[in-house]
Amino acid sequence: MPPNFRLHAVALAFSAAFSFPISSSAQSLVVTPTSKGDEADIPSNKAEKLEKNDQVDPSPQNKSKAKAAKAANVETIQSVTVNATRQSDLETRRSSTASKLVFGREELDRNGDASIGEILKRLPGVTIGGRPGRGGDIRMRGMGSGYTQILLNGEPAPRGFSMDSLSPDQVERIEVIRGPVAEYSTQAIAGTINIVLREEYKQKDIELKISDSLEQDRHAPNISLTYPGQVGNLSYALSGSIFRNQQLDESLTHNLEKDGQGQVTLAQDIFDQSTRHSQGLQFAPRLSYRFENGDSVMLQPFLMNSRSQSTSLSELTQTPQAGAQYASAHATGQSENSFARGFSNWQHKFSDNSKLMVKLGGGAGRQESSSLRNEYDAGGLLLNTISDVNNTHDSSLNLGGKYNRALGESHSLAVGLDLEAGKRSQTRTSLQNGQPQFADSGDNLDASTRRVAIFAQDEFDLSAQWSAYAGLRWEGIRTSSSGVAPSGAAVENTSSVWSPVLHSVWRLSGASKDQIRMSLTRSYRAPSLNDLIAIPSISSVNSPTKPDRNGNPALKPELSTGVDLAYEHYLTRAGIMSANLFVRSIDDLIRRRTELVNTITGPRWVSSPVNVGHALASGIELEAKFQLQEFFPTAPAIDFRSNYSHFWSKVDDIAGPNNRLDQQPVQTANLGLDYRAAGLPLTLGGSLNWTPSYETQSSDTQITSTGIKRQIDVYGLWKFSPSLQLRLSANNFQADDYQSGSVVTTGGVYHVANSVAKTYTTWTLKLEMKI
């Protein structure tokens, strides 16, 4: 046991002695933490070194009071209960050896956001693809989809799960881990975002939230309820929500083609308008039981169902008109997504204080969608009928365990095993005028994955100021399928990766709130199932910028060696200033290439993933978060939040300039303020999210561009009482148009496409009650 821990325990014992009558025959001290899990409940040794909250008052008055209390009470007290408080988000960040940022309910509730993506976009180094208010893939450090590992309760998010569909009310906290750790999968080249569902320890009251969002006079009501309780050794939290949403989208795309002599051969404008109605529910109960011997069992199912209906209108004008695919089109679509996931674990503590945790989980998901599109000529004559039916079923089962043992006063070793099996069954039928659009349209796809991992991690203190973490993880993945395009033959892909990771934190002597972090890690990105094995996705308007998409079973995983260096300065009033530098060297980079290929329906543009070579990514992430009164005691009660990130990358096998990683912006920034009015139960705040426009040389033949994203969110909060408050928020207040485009030069054809999509302001009124 470390000396500081012993001092802390002695101080706690003396503090209890001064408060309670304890005789020499007292037999036990029972500590009842308010949070879950032994490691999360009680502050670690590192946290105790950082914060000595329980100081003994050795004054003569206190001593005399204690003696009097002891003399007056000679009865035997069998036990004393001490409630330990959970570390704050900043304390958790500060005491962690690996760089981990934690964002709890305060951050989740602040702006009254309707989706997790709207919250994530404000976090340091995190960007969201797509237009504001419509969600998109989540990216850390600007890296595109697949480089950021998304976890749900510490487990990989299952296929078919959309983070945008998860209500923030069902989430307890978000953990952003900048470097891989051995305990989790090291498929985290950019980093890991762990979404932790609601827990029972913080909720003491029934919590009811009723909200209605308004976008273009379209309402989106939402009701969320959390019901906690305890019966004996069983504690529970029943959390659920129901929602309904209505949205309208409009976009205009301009296509221009030139031949080898620079003559315009095609000028085309496409106007698209769609409406979508959706409704759904989510239910996430959590049950925890503690046995008399100290063992604990936790069970947390998560259920989600959503349905949507859509209609769309497309109008095409073209010069020359000859050869136009259609003049107008009308489409309808329906979809239903159902998802069920179960998390459970059992923890046992041995007599030598070592611990064993066994976890078991599984899930099943179903995605069913259908669409029908009718295309007409300028006279209203039906030209084409295109139908698409897609039924996908996913299932998974995972089993794991971790054994943790202390090897000295400040030394902890853990070893573990993870097993996961998944299966996908998919049937997709794409027909044009009753005929298959692709050679394998209508074929069935059955795919399975097996993931096995073993890991060991060692966390230790080299000195009072220096802590380190060393880990090693081996992970192997096997993917197989039958009925795969284009040959119809069974295929198999197997890969395995060794990932050593090393993290260290140095707390500067004489400046207890300053520290330096260093990391050297190995991580990887496994090809997604859709990239390996996929029934082709057919584009209704096939072109170099809107190609069909299929998979490549010969893909290899991307391997990355990473270095991180960070400086953190913690302020007195719950604030921080930090700077983080990172470098990632990536081999076997996966990139999509678009080529013109011959199919049974004629030549078509098809996009396929391939390994193209080496890439280098680097960047700097700056963060400042503080209360203004930290520096100016007489200033108004204003909280200041800001971060700025600048990214660089280069793909060796693609000629520059702008041969960057796909979809990586050059920079991004966030600025936020919260003002608490003096004498009024009113808080006003807002934030600005900014990502400038950028271009990417995505291949030797294609350049993609993304316009500026400038999103302003504002809110006001009125607290009627500690148990009743009303929040009004406006998301995407400025509602700028979202622009994107591409330039393709291939086969003597120069093709330019530019798209402008409207975005909208969403007003939300939310009533929050504790009963």
Description:
- The chain has a 29-stranded mixed β-sheet that branches.
- It has eight helices and 38 strands.
- Helices cover 8% and strands 58% of the residues.
- It is globular.
Number of helices: 8
Oligomer: single chain
Main sheet overview: 29 strands, mixed
Structural class: mainly beta
CATH architecture grouping of the largest domain: Beta Barrel
- Poorly predicted regions: 1-45, 47-84
Enter the CATH topology name of the largest domain: Maltoporin, Chain A
Mean pLDDT: 84
Helix content: under 10%
What is the CATH class name of the largest domain? Mainly Beta
Please, how many domains? 3
In what range is the share of β-strand residues? over 45%
Radius of gyration: 29 Å
Rough outline: globular
Give the strand tally.
Answer: 38
Gap from first CA to last CA: 43 Å
Q: Mind telling me the CATH superfamily name of the largest domain?
A: TonB-dependent receptor, beta-barrel domain
Describe the secondary-structure layout:
Blueprint (H helix, E strand, L loop, with lengths): L2 H17 L10 E2 L6 H4 L3 H6 L9 H13 L8 E2 L6 H7 L4 E4 L1 H5 L6 H5 L5 E3 L9 E3 L7 E5 L2 E2 L14 E7 L13 E7 L9 E9 L2 E14 L2 E25 L5 E20 L2 E5 L5 E24 L8 E22 L5 E22 L5 E25 L4 E22 L2 E2 L7 E18 L4 E17 L8 E17 L6 E12 L3 H4 L15 E2 L8 E13 L5 E24 L2 E26 L10 E14 L15 E10 L5 E10 L2 E4 L4 E5 L2 E13 L2 E8 L6 E9 L2 E9 L4 E9 L1
Parallel strand pairs: 1-2, 6-9, 25-28
Antiparallel strand pairs: 3-8, 4-5, 6-7, 8-9, 10-11, 10-38, 11-12, 12-13, 12-14, 12-37, 13-15, 14-15, 15-16, 16-17, 17-18, 18-19, 19-20, 19-21, 21-22, 22-23, 23-24, 24-26, 26-27, 27-28, 28-29, 29-30, 30-31, 31-34, 32-33, 33-36, 34-35, 35-38, 36-37
